[in-house]
Amino acid sequence: MYSLFKKLFSKKVREVSNEQELFVFDYKDVLPRLFEVSFTLSENDKYTDIVFDVDNKEAPVLKPFMQDISVGYGIDTDNEYKILQNKHLSETLSIEALHHIALENFSASFLNNTRVEGSFDDVIMLINDGNNEAAMILLDLYWDELAEMFKNDICICIPQKDLIFVTAKNNEAGLSKMRELIKSVFSEIGTGGKLVKHIYERQKAGWYIKETINV
């Protein structure tokens, strides 16, 4: 496995876009991006059991992560943010390999740039690069450490791609504030990057919906 990722990081992928222009990117520039994608699980299903159709080569690469949230993969170019499509996958670049690469890249950026605003007795907001904070939910080790700082199980909300709020599971004042934050985001007309109206709680190294806010 190590040799595969080493090989991937050492080269570039070249694909032809819809406009028949050459799209060149470095694997080290790939980052995860969250999308709201609704799907239904049967009683015994797991998110890892869900596979989206990859035959549509123009569709974005998506990997289910938790209820109503899937992970896509993008690259910041000089002029725009490009989302990788199924046509960019290959025998040497599977969805799992792409996911691993994106998390490695994001982890490095996250460790160097993240700061906390707010109080652990109330609600904190995590701030990273200003447009992809919600993707922090993908970093399992960080949440284990953060739960220790809260001295409690934790809840989060990610109403927008650049917003993530955290509070303790038993902090009713903090949860109430989260509800108002979600309502505020979804009541704003024209605000881009909206995600979900859920409050998730951390259980067994995963995220599960605790409640959904009516807006």
Helix content: 25-40%
Total count of helical runs of at least 4 residues: 4
Distance between the termini: 46 Å
Provide the residue-averaged pLDDT: 83
Ranges where pLDDT stays below 50 over 5 or more residues in a row are 1-21
Shape estimate = globular
Organism: Polluticaenibacter yanchengensis
Protein name: DUF1444 family protein
What does this structure look like?
Helices cover 25% and strands 31% of the residues. With 215 residues, the protein is of the alpha+beta class. The protein has two domains: 2-110, no CATH class; 114-212, no CATH class. The strands form three sheets. The protein has a six-stranded antiparallel sheet with strand order 7-8-10-9-11-12, with helices on both faces. Strands 3, 4, 5 and 6 form a four-stranded antiparallel sheet that branches. It is globular. The model is unreliable at 1-21 (pLDDT under 50).
Key structural traits:
about 220 residues; 6-stranded antiparallel sheet; single chain; alpha+beta; disordered N terminus; 12 strands
Summary?
With 215 residues, the chain is an alpha+beta fold. It is built from four helices and twelve strands, in the order αββββββαββαββαββ. It comes from Polluticaenibacter yanchengensis.
Q: Topology, please?
A:
Layout: H1 2-9, E1 12-16, E2 22-26, E3 30-36, E4 63-66, E5 69-76, E6 81-83, H2 95-113, E7 115-118, E8 124-127, H3 140-150, E9 154-160, E10 163-168, H4 172-187, E11 198-203, E12 206-212
Antiparallel strand pairs: 1-2, 3-5, 4-5, 5-6, 7-8, 8-10, 9-10, 9-11, 11-12
